Amino acid sequence: MSIYGHPFLLPAQAAAACLTLLAAAPAVPAAQRTADVMAGTWTYGGRPYMLLLGILVVVSAGMAVTGMVRARNAARRAAQMEKLLRQRLGETTEWADREREIRTLMHHAAIGIYRSTLDGSRFTEANKHLALLYGMHDEKEFLRTVTPLDMHPSGQNRQELMQKLRRDGVVSRQKILLRDKSGSLRHAITSALISSRNESIFGLIYDMTDEHNSKEEMRRTGAMLQSVIDAMPNPFFFKNARGRYKIVNRAFCRLVNRPAEALVDRTVEAFASPAMAQIYNDADAVLLTAAGPAVQRYETVVESEEGGTEVLLYKESICDDNGTITGIVGAAFDITSRKETESALRQAEERYRTIFMHALDGIFTCTPQGLLLEANPAFARMFGYESRETLLETVPSVRSLWVSSQTHDEMMGLLCNRPQLTAQRAEMLRRNGEHFWAEISCQAFYDTQGEVTRIEGIISDVTHHMMQERELRTQASTDKLTGLMNRYGFDEAFERLLAQAQRSSRKVGVAFIDLDGFKEINDRFGHDTGDMLLKEVARRLQQRVRETDITARPGGDEFAVLLWDVGGTEDLRRLGESLLDALRPPYRCDANVCTLTASIGLSLYPDHGLTAGTLLRQADQAMYAVKNAGKNAVRLAV
């Protein structure tokens, strides 16, 4: 077998082949071998022995080199293996350290971490937070007694979660409801994946209950605040620093005639014309660029499809804790009615000024101390001044216009207790010294402390009116025949006298007089004679009574006398006898002489009664008793 036919033999294999060839060659004599060598044709048994020997030498050398290379490579590989083993050993130690760290972190993590079987029937690992989330403090007890199904209140939701996990291999940030040991529900977020290496489910559970409750509380608070804001009658808004509305109430929506959805996160251009929007934005820019909180207040017109609304706009910039302006809060106050009222007031003031200047009655304003502040022309003329300016310059105090300063002071005192006086009459003094009667109506105006700040009044000259009233009153209360008081005047006078007696603890006597035989004289001599007789009776009675007493003719042939400050019943009887004596002398009736007597009944206040009606009744009954007893006498009420 020739080695040339195997060019790719390894050195060891080539050497083995050469040795095999040499061993198979026949023996050759030494002389022959020498001759072959000298001739350069060394053969051995007819074969090229020298060539084979060279090949063998080369192959042997190659084998030596190859062994050295192999040894070196083996040493290198051993070193590499040692390095790799050391590296792997270090990595194993590092992984062990890392695993311990991970388990420590897992144990103390603020979220629930678990590993469960692939079917989710039980936990194989769980950290302390997951046990605490369920309401247990020992995670080992948790692993022993709690299954994933125990923590899910809804089997259907858990089934859907597992189906999604098997389908996708992972679940990320899935919101779930968990049930703790007490049965309470907790809100959580879970992420989980299927681990193919150990065929398990690895998952995280983050307890969101506090955050959920906080958000729910914030939502409720926000809803309540929105309800409060919506309940505000005035339009209200809040816009951020970029000019976008974030909060609006219903009143604001009504003001601009837009729903809240069309305003929130929009700018003022959502409802205002470009011109008005520019005005609002310019005003906002002043607030937003101010150094710290700032306030604006101005009147404007808010436009809408239904027209414009005049409002007073109040705006204030809002700053955070760092002093950075974050937005603007504002409120609008509808001043349409106020504007209309102001216009009406201006018109009313114009009308009042016209009335003030052209009124026939005097109009004035003064201080509580009497300083005259304002007066119209009629007031000046009433007191004899040519102009209101002259009056205001000349008269130091309205007190000097009263005849009685005491009357003025009393009227001012009344105004301190009640805000208004109506139709108060007082005697006034003109510039030339002439007296006249005036009727005054005043109203006091007070400050916040209840003190009178000014008095406004109207004054009318009622002198002529009072004279007419006095004449009419006299006519109404006077008997035309005798000039004495009639029944109407007597009743008024009696009430006044009783009131005075009550205040002063005095006694009042009543004498009721009925003439005896008057009817016969009147029938015999005629009515003219009867009238003359009645006049004479009235004259005699007036001459006999005191100035403090009142004589009246209630009607017909009856007379009455009110006797003031009577000492008692005996004093009253004496006065009654005096009246009877005055009526006994004869009367001249034309050419004839007539004799007339009277029956007199007496009563005394308060002995016989407390009211005018009672006292008159008592006196009348006493008078009739005299009539029945023979007339011409005086009798005291019983």
Helices and strands in order:
Elements: H1 11-24, H2 30-38, H3 49-108, E1 112-117, E2 123-126, H4 128-134, H5 139-145, H6 148-151, H7 155-168, E3 170-179, E4 185-195, E5 200-207, H8 209-231, E6 236-240, E7 245-248, H9 250-256, H10 274-288, E8 295-304, E9 307-319, E10 325-334, H11 336-358, E11 362-366, E12 372-375, H12 377-382, H13 388-394, H14 405-417, E13 420-429, E14 435-446, E15 452-461, H15 463-477, H16 487-504, E16 508-516, H17 518-525, H18 527-544, E17 550-555, E18 558-564, H19 569-583, E19 587-589, E20 592-594, E21 597-605, H20 612-629, E22 633-636
Parallel strand pairs: 21-22
Antiparallel strand pairs: 1-2, 1-5, 3-4, 4-5, 6-7, 6-10, 8-9, 9-10, 11-12, 11-15, 13-14, 14-15, 16-18, 16-21, 17-18, 19-20
Helix pairs in contact: 1-3, 17-18, 18-19
Keywords: Membrane, Signal, Transmembrane, Transmembrane helix
Domain PAS: 348-391
Pfam family, one: GGDEF
Short description:
InterPro entries: Biofilm_reg_signaling, GGDEF_dom, Nucleotide_cyclase, PAC, PAS, PAS-assoc_C, PAS-like_dom_sf, PAS_4. With 638 residues, this protein is α+β, with helices and mostly antiparallel strands. Helix content is 47%, strand content 26%.
